[in-house]
Amino acid sequence: MKIAEAGNIIEFKQGLKGKVQKVNKNSVIVDISIMENFRDLEMEPLTVVNHKNYKIVRTAE
């Protein structure tokens, strides 16, 4: 399992995508406000995702 780094874009939970803000021991904190339909989701902008539950879509540059 590859662990994401800050700045990576990850995909999780049925297509949600976000930018990793902070990496913790067992999870990452993700900003999902980068998604085009963020306002329609009615969710908080930051969420926590376990390392087992995401895949890296794009690495930080």
Describe this structure in words.
- The chain has 61 residues and is mainly beta.
- The protein has one domain (9-58).
- It has one helix at residues 38-41; strands spanning 9-12, 16-23, 27-31, 46-50, 54-58.
- A hairpin with a 3-residue loop joins strand 2 (16-23) and strand 3 (27-31).
- The mean pLDDT is 95.
Beta-strand residue percentage: 35-45%
For the sheet with most strands, the description reads: 5 strands, antiparallel
Secondary-structure-derived class: mainly beta
Look at the structure and give the mean pLDDT. 95
**What value does the Rg take, in angstroms?**
11 Å
Number of helices: 1
Low-confidence region ranges: none
Quaternary state of the chains: single chain
Number of folding domains? 1
Order of helices and strands: EEEHEE
Helix content: under 10%
**N- to C-terminal distance:** 21 Å
Shape: globular
Query: How many beta-strand runs?
Result: 5
Organism: Gottfriedia solisilvae
Protein name: DUF2187 domain-containing protein
InterPro entries: DUF2187
List the helices and strands and how they pair.
Elements: E1 9-12, E2 16-23, E3 27-31, H1 38-41, E4 46-50, E5 54-58
Antiparallel strand pairs: 1-2, 1-5, 2-3, 3-4
List keywords for this structure.
single chain, 61 residues, mainly beta, 5-stranded antiparallel sheet, 5 strands, 7% helix, globular
Produce a short descriptive summary:
This protein is 7% helix and 44% strand. It is mainly beta. The longest helix is centred in the middle third of the chain and has 4 residues, at 38-41.
